[in-house]
Amino acid sequence: MYNMFFVSKKVSGLSMETLNYYGYVLQRFFHEIQKDIKNIDTNDIRYYLAERAMRDNISKVTQDNELRVLKSFFNWQQEEGYLQHSPARKVAKIKQDYRIKKPYSEIELEKLRRETTNKRDLAIIDVLYSTGCRVSEIVKANREDIAGDELTVYGKGGKERVVYLNPKAILTLTEYINDREDDNEALFVHLRRPHSRLKKEGIESMICELGKRAGVKKAHPHRFRRTVATNALNRGMPMEEVQQLLGHNDIQTTSIYAKSTQENVKADHKKYVV
């Protein structure tokens, strides 16, 4: 039934990356609890999450992510008839401290661009800033997914959507592609032979290193996504359209960026007006 859970999730469209994370969490949980699945109760799950927080010092975000995996697993066991009750149903969602995560400023973006040393890295920055894509979507994209100023990407669960390239992104991306000598179908590849498809970790590492050299704190790929969302909302784009742009299934996820925007306005009001 353990294997069938993963088969079920694979069929439902979860990515290999997500399935690997599920496997990591479940393996860690069962190693910690040391009980047969039918003997696990709600307190075992609470104990595990508390231990992870106190002993391993994981964040509330990580706690909640692991709880969601456990809920998904045990709820599926109940729904499929393997368990009479899911021990995870009564475990409350982990409350998280809300912190304002700032987008990149125009100066920070330009600093990052100026620190690039090759056409690929510059194109990646411009594409991330233009589209607001997840890094996982960018690394899966192929050259053939580009059509003029449109880029087709595949998000969570393999969901397809079209994102848009601004003139700057079109220019730097075209220059990068035209400069390549490999025949790999991937949109972004390693600079060295055999020019294999660039992975998520490669982009994260590259942007982190650019941030260090440019003096831009907390430089990370996801911050481009936050910047696109915040700027779009600030300039009046309806939240439903921002939701579509970012590929969010739930508009409540998009509303987080609106809350961040409002908090920034409030902070600036206190700073400059009051």
Automatic annotation (TrEMBL):
<keyword id="KW-0159">Chromosome partition</keyword>
<dbReference type="GO" id="GO:0015074">
    <property type="term" value="P:DNA integration"/>
</dbReference>
<keyword id="KW-0233">DNA recombination</keyword>
<dbReference type="GO" id="GO:0051301">
    <property type="term" value="P:cell division"/>
</dbReference>
<dbReference type="InterPro" id="IPR011010">
    <property type="entry name" value="DNA_brk_join_enz"/>
</dbReference>
<dbReference type="InterPro" id="IPR044068">
    <property type="entry name" value="CB"/>
</dbReference>
<dbReference type="GO" id="GO:0005737">
    <property type="term" value="C:cytoplasm"/>
</dbReference>
<dbReference type="InterPro" id="IPR013762">
    <property type="entry name" value="Integrase-like_cat_sf"/>
</dbReference>
<dbReference type="Pfam" id="PF13495">
    <property type="entry name" value="Phage_int_SAM_4"/>
</dbReference>
<keyword id="KW-0238">DNA-binding</keyword>
<dbReference type="GO" id="GO:0003677">
    <property type="term" value="F:DNA binding"/>
</dbReference>
<dbReference type="InterPro" id="IPR050090">
    <property type="entry name" value="Tyrosine_recombinase_XerCD"/>
</dbReference>
<dbReference type="Pfam" id="PF00589">
    <property type="entry name" value="Phage_integrase"/>
</dbReference>
<dbReference type="InterPro" id="IPR004107">
    <property type="entry name" value="Integrase_SAM-like_N"/>
</dbReference>
<keyword id="KW-0131">Cell cycle</keyword>
<feature type="domain" description="Core-binding (CB)">
    <location>
        <begin position="1"/>
        <end position="78"/>
    </location>
</feature>
<keyword id="KW-0132">Cell division</keyword>
<feature type="domain" description="Tyr recombinase">
    <location>
        <begin position="99"/>
        <end position="270"/>
    </location>
</feature>
<comment type="function">
    <text>Site-specific tyrosine recombinase, which acts by catalyzing the cutting and rejoining of the recombining DNA molecules.</text>
</comment>
<keyword id="KW-0229">DNA integration</keyword>
<dbReference type="InterPro" id="IPR010998">
    <property type="entry name" value="Integrase_recombinase_N"/>
</dbReference>
<comment type="similarity">
    <text>Belongs to the 'phage' integrase family.</text>
</comment>
<dbReference type="GO" id="GO:0007059">
    <property type="term" value="P:chromosome segregation"/>
</dbReference>
<keyword id="KW-0963">Cytoplasm</keyword>
<protein>
    <submittedName>
        <fullName>Integrase</fullName>
    </submittedName>
</protein>
<dbReference type="GO" id="GO:0006310">
    <property type="term" value="P:DNA recombination"/>
</dbReference>
<dbReference type="InterPro" id="IPR002104">
    <property type="entry name" value="Integrase_catalytic"/>
</dbReference>
